[in-house]
Design a protein that fits this description.
The chain has 2 domains: 325 residues, no CATH class; 298 residues, 3-Layer(aba) Sandwich (Rossmann fold), CATH 3.40.50. Helices cover 56% and strands 10% of the residues. It contains 25 helices and 12 strands. A hairpin with a 5-residue loop joins strand 8 and strand 9. It is rod-shaped.
Length: 751
């Protein structure tokens, strides 16, 4: 169990060390990303004009608490809370508030595209639609869960405007409900008033007739035989009165639905077909009006929407007409029923008149008058109730009331600087770390000896640490070069270099370290001849390690010819050759460097010499080889410079004179180091490969693409050139060997 915990802890520590290294490797990228995010968000927060949010709370009841009658119950415009909240965000209400507050003339709301003076309704359609959309975008309606309360908010860049607009919106919402709720009551009251006037006139006529008949006739109480007839008259009059009330109610309802706007059927139950069709019609109408502000009617999308709207309109009209026909049929049935009772009563009255019974006739008139008065009393009561409903319009006694009115907000709702900056800090850190991990996963460059072994199955002869560990300013530039390599697709696209002399203004790479002390932009210090200049540096120690490896692996007392090449340019090949030759010479070996890069020679710059006489002179003439071998200022180290740049480099390198040169040098030197061009750029290295005992590839950590190194190895194998291994320079110590290499560096690195 203890061993298991130990292994688990080691695994966790290894993972933590791995991710810690990735963070350290891409630290500048992470920091730059974090800085950019924080700077951008800070600028945005402080440059963004603040917006203010006014808030108001309203209460919406399901059922009204006023008026007990059932025939005209219109106080609750809609018992569905979601429908009420949607009404708060209706286009009609928005247009009404814009007109009421003259927001189309208010630059704080309309901005530069103000509709100008005049009525909002007379403004261009596009302007009206834009202002309505802006107004609706500023509204947010949120029902409070578990209550009948709704919180309404209005957002504006001006606190006073936000409060005024929200209060006007709530007032307009209540007024709209009142207007809709009591429109039917007002129509009913007008109808009932007309009926009452007519009925009072009839009652007056009946009273005159009754008084006149009573004064002319000597009226006696009805006899026992006449009493049933009087009772029947009373029953028929009561039945006729009820039928008349039913006919009046149904005629009143018929008038209401016949004059109601499209789809607004009074007392239509929720969930019925008419309500469903009305919802579809309202949705399509808003969508069509919204798009009409920016899209022409002849566009296919608008035509499709228009056809859907026409279909919804037609369906709603058809359903409305069906309801009107049903109401008319019900009214006509009630009318026929009333007429039937009236006929039966008239027949009974004719029988009474035929019997010449004065008392029955008198009681008949009296009963008819009482029925008329009962009908008048019923209609007057309904008129009073309806009148109360209409009066409530002024009293605003509805099922909606304002709990909290909106006040101008004191603090802006957006931007919340503290919250946004905290989120920016978290996002900057998380995004930077994520970016670092993403770049690491996308990286296809050689970074460690493990990458070399995995890609080529070649041994790593040695690693040359980068200057980043002990020099200033290395990290960000190295990361930038890695990112550029990723953006270039891992550097798998190689250009073939042109033959001929180098241009005077060509870019300088890692190998282009001139005698004037010029250093490429991606190098913090000179690497050439560092084994002599800084012999105690960790870079010099790296070259000595490679020297030891080569001494051990090569046969003693035998001259060894080694060809140095690289997959691509700027891999540190020339500087590696010069430093390795220098440490070999210091190790007591006689070494000669041949600058066989006849296209872009660099060794004469490294050793601060001219390039007048060199290998091309030997290859193209019959001079003796000692005339081109130049002694350097370092013991045991000689140099054969390139010489004048030829027009046919590959022909010279494959000539018999080249073999003659190497044959002449072998008895006099222990090691012959040939500096040749990149293998994927030109074929010079492949042409000279068979003349050497072996080849060494030079790669640069974090820059040499793995596919390029693999392709270089495949070319060497295809030409049967023995590859001794790979020198990996400009390597991140922590990435190569982890914590212990870093500790060693701190111990061995010079101050």
């Amino acid at each position: 169990m203890t061993e298991y915990k130990t292994e688990t802890q080691k695994g966790i520590m290894a993972q933590a060390q791995h991710y810690g290294h990735i963070i350290f490797k891409w630290k500048w990228t992470i920091l730059v990303f974090f800085f950019v995010v924080i700077t951008s968000v800070t600028l945005y927060v402080f440059l963004t004009k603040p917006t203010y949010m006014a808030s108001s709370s309203i209460w919406i009841d399901d059922e009204p608490k006023i008026l007990p009658f059932e025939e005209i119950q219109t106080l609750s415009a809609n018992s569905n809370l979601p429908s009420q909240t949607q009404l708060l965000q209706s286009r009609a209400l928005a247009a009404e508030i814009i007109e009421k507050l003259k927001l189309h003339e208010n630059p704080e709301f309309s901005g530069k595209k103000s509709a100008g003076g005049g009525s909002f309704q007379t403004a261009p359609l596009q302007v009206r639609e834009r202002l309505i959309e802006d107004f609706l975008k500023s509204i947010s309606v949120t029902p409070i869960t578990g209550t009948r309360m709704v919180e309404v908010r209005f957002t504006s860049r001006h606190p006073q405007l936000a409060a005024d607009a929200l209060n006007a919106l709530v007032d307009g919402f209540i007024a709209m409900i009142i207007k809709k709720s009591y429109r039917d009551s007002e129509q009913a009251m007008e109808f009932l008033s007309n009926q009452i006037v007519t009925l009072r006139h009839e009652i007056g006529e009946r009273e005159k007739q009754l008084n006149s008949y009573g004064s002319e006739k000597s009226i006696l109480p009805p006899t026992a035989s006449e009493a049933p007839t009087v009772t029947r008259l009373a029953e028929f009059n009561k039945t006729l009165t009820d039928a008349t009330i039913d006919r009046i109610n149904k005629y009143n309802y018929y008038n209401q639905i016949k004059s109601a706007p499209l789809g607004e059927i009074p007392d239509a139950p929720a969930g019925t077909l008419i309500q469903t069709l009305r919802g579809q019609y309202s949705t399509l109408s808003r969508e069509y009006a919204k798009r009409l502000a920016t899209i022409r009617p002849e566009y296919p999308e608008m035509q499709r929407l228009k056809s859907e709207l026409d279909a919804a309109t037609e369906a709603l009209q058809n359903e409305t007409q069906n309801l009107i026909r049903v109401a008319l049929t019900n009214y006509q049935a009630a009318l026929r029923k009333e007429q039937s009772f009236q006929k039966q009563l008239d027949d009974l009255k004719n029988e009474v008149f035929k019997s010449n019974s004065n008392s029955i006739q008198y009681n008949s008139l009296q009963i008819e008058l009482a029925s008329k008065k009962t009908l008048l009393e019923t209609l007057s009561k309904k008129q009073s109730e309806t009148d109360v409903s209409s009066q409530l319009k002024g009293l605003k006694a509805i099922n909606v009331w304002v709990v909290d009115k909106a006040d101008p907000p004191l603090n802006p709702a957006f931007p919340n600087k503290r919250k946004i900056l905290m989120i920016a800090v978290l996002f900057g850190l998380a995004g930077g770390l994520g970016l670092g991990l993403a770049l690491e996963s996308m990286s296809q460059t050689v970074n460690t000896s493990k990458d070399i072994a995995k890609a080529t199955d070649l041994p790593t002869l040695g690693v040359i640490p980068s200057f980043g560990a002990g020099s200033k300013g290395k990290g960000s530039r190295t990361e930038w070069s890695r990112i550029v390599a990723l953006l270039r697709g891992g550097g798998t696209k190689m250009k073939k270099e042109k033959s001929g002399p180098p241009a005077g203004n060509r870019s300088v790479g890692l190998d282009d370290l001139s005698a004037s002390g010029e250093t490429p932009k991606n190098m913090p210090a000179k690497i050439e001849l560092i084994a002599s200049r800084e012999p105690n540096s960790i870079q010099a120690e790296g070259f000595r390690s490679i020297r030891t490896m080569l001494f051990i692996s090569t046969p003693p007392r035998k001259s060894n010819t080694i060809l140095f090449t690289s997959a691509l340019a700027r891999e540190g090949k020339s500087s590696s050759v010069s430093n390795l030759a220098l440490v070999m010479a210091k190790g007591g070996k006689k070494v000669v460097i041949i600058d066989a890069d006849l296209r872009k020679p660099k060794q004469h710059k490294i050793f601060r010499s001219d390039n007048n006489l060199g290998m091309t002179n030997f290859l193209s003439s019959h001079i003796d080889f000692w005339q081109v071998v130049q002694a350097t200022s370092f013991p045991n180290l000689c140099l054969i410079k390139c010489g004048p740049i030829p027009a046919n480099p590959i022909e010279l390198l494959t000539s018999e004179r080249m073999e003659e040169l190497l044959t002449s040098l072998k008895p006099n030197f222990d090691f012959i180091l040939i500096d040749s061009p990149p293998i994927l750029a030109v074929s010079d290295s492949l042409a000279m490969g068979p003349l050497a005992d072996g080849a060494i590839l030079v790669a640069r950590g974090g820059q040499t693409p793995i596919p390029a190194l693999k392709q270089a190895k495949e070319k060497l194998d295809a030409h049967k050139i023995k590859c001794l291994g790979v020198i990996l320079n400009d390597v991140d110590l922590i990435e190569e060997d982890g914590y212990y290499a870093r500790e060693y560096y701190h111990y061995a690195a010079p101050d």
